[in-house]
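hi! just following up on the protien thing from before. the input was this:
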Amino acid sequence: WSTFRQGVRWLGQIGALRWVASGGLKQVEAGSLTVFRNPEAAVSVSYHGVFAGYDRSTNAPSYFSLKQALTSGRGLSLPNPNLKAEYADTFRAGYKAGPLHVDVYEKRFRNAIQSETVTNNPLVYRPYNGGSMEVRGASCSFSTSSLLGSKLGLDARAEYNFGRNRLPDGKVQPTDKTTPFVGYLRLSWAGLWSEFLFQPKATRLSP
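and the predicted 3d structure came back as:
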């Protein structure tokens, strides 16, 4: 199993306006017979702290999804050797000024790898390509090594995510493995530090 990327990148600037653009080919070899080749591209621009960007990325199926059955606490997952790569378009915009950073994003998955139930007792399921997913989010962070001129360092971040899964039959359901909220705080003083992380146990979001 190997991944290989090749491409080009272009950086430019006119006054305060800066941009970065890249494009290339991503190749994933899943054994000697299964090869995924997909183009990827990205572009971002910034001006006086305001930034925006677009990214096209691809994700090849995992080894177990393609080649081997896997038993977990959920049940038995059967492989599907006919799986194709899924891809995502991500749009992002935000603002950065000194220690403050805020941004919003939307990610749209196409040809998404989903799971369908084969039998319920025992539970057997398998992956397939179909439907789409949409994930939206926003984050805000603040980081400084000297808060208000003191020796106290602060690193704080809050992030919110919301996702929906559109199945091929037209049904819409919440996504899983998408944590709706994450809060992080780290305090440091004279080489000592303490950090806190909060996120809900539930990984499903209400549509």
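The first strand starts at residue 2 and ends at 14.
The mean pLDDT is 87.
cheers
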